[in-house]
Amino acid sequence: MLTRTGSALAGIAFSGALAELFAGTAAASAHTGSTGYGPLVPDPDGLLDLPRGFRYRVLSREGAPLRSGEGAVPGRHDGMAAIAGRRGRVHLVRNHENGADAPLGVPTVPGLTYDPAARGGCTVLTLDPRGAVVDERVGVAGTAVNCAGGPTPWRTWLTCEETEDTAGTDGYERDHGFVFEVDPADPRRSGAVPLTALGRFAHEAVAVDPRSGVVYETEDAFERPFGLFYRFLPHRPLGGPGSLRAGGTLEAMRVPGVPDLSAVREPGTRFDRVEWVPVPDSQARRTPIRFQDFGRRGITHAQKLEGCYWGGRSVYFVSSFARASQGSAADHHGQVWRYDPHLRWLTLVVVFGPDSDPRLPGESPDNICLAPGGGLMVCEDGGGAQHVYGLTRRGEVYAMARNAQALETDASGQATEWGEFAGVTFSPDGRTMYVNCYTPGTTFAVTGPWA
């Protein structure tokens, strides 16, 4: 995506196969502010630039006291979901991508801490029907590098550890690389129990099929062999909070004849012979899963598998970028794939960025969600100023928000680095967009004339 004063973008191609989102769109090109909600207006407070008519509130900021009295708000805000609560309340479940060296870790709380030596986890903000924060507390602690995750049909949050570190690494007392369930209404009901059957690997995000209960998972890997796309077949599908502890079968996706998804370049390309292969050792006791032997036909890999979400009757997942110089089969600046479990079809529906344009940022889509009026909201994670972008049903691309908080400036005072966005999500009624700034950790609520 190419930014020109925050409102002009180019280099995104679409497929009409994304019917739920783009309604027959074939392509998208550059726009100069005539699409979306208009140009971004600089924020006089220097926090968040939005289109005219929109406004934001800061719900939470790193370092402030948690309302629960459990300590300070942790840093490195990442993946997030808005889950409906009782009596019109909304629970925001927010990840903190903290490694062992994080300066503001998630406070350890008895009964909610997996590994006292780890500093990642989740916090939960509870909002009243007017959107005011009435509580903020620890959801799970003692986990590591909690990047993304996904909501369940039974109104809990699955938070994912994006690491494969074992006990003894960085002082950790227990193995990491698991998924944990967080009950936002009462975190003590879920505790700090690793869902080991969902595999031990560098998890990024998950999505649950609301009809079958199958859990889809992405693996974020920078180096070869790259990550895999998984599905987990639970023994107790749709069993409610805690049901995933009953175990199940973990499988990885194989697309016959396609060892690397980056080699697929044309939007609309469809594969109708997708296979699922049981993972030999889901706990990666000796060998990381992506290195394991899946037989002579191999398995399908992809660099930087990140966002994963359910929409319509399909699961969508994101490859943030691919670089041939790093071992991928080809270059791209982002792909969105759609898998239809009923038809067992895999379709490439969105491609970000022409390879020939050196001005494009190194990473394009990261966290991604469905917008209430159709289309997508995409968190940028690349070079230069950082944005939340919208993609409309017609394939138009527009800037929805820009981070005005400069992390670094040059000698003349000009900003040179900004923190990325993460965790974009909408309230259950679609009237409020919530989004995190990763650094400095800030959670915003954005309201205005949504279409």
From TrEMBL:
<dbReference type="Pfam" id="PF05787">
    <property type="entry name" value="PhoX"/>
</dbReference>
<protein>
    <recommendedName>
        <fullName>Tat pathway signal sequence domain protein</fullName>
    </recommendedName>
</protein>
<feature type="signal peptide">
    <location>
        <begin position="1"/>
        <end position="19"/>
    </location>
</feature>
<dbReference type="InterPro" id="IPR008557">
    <property type="entry name" value="PhoX"/>
</dbReference>
<keyword id="KW-0732">Signal</keyword>
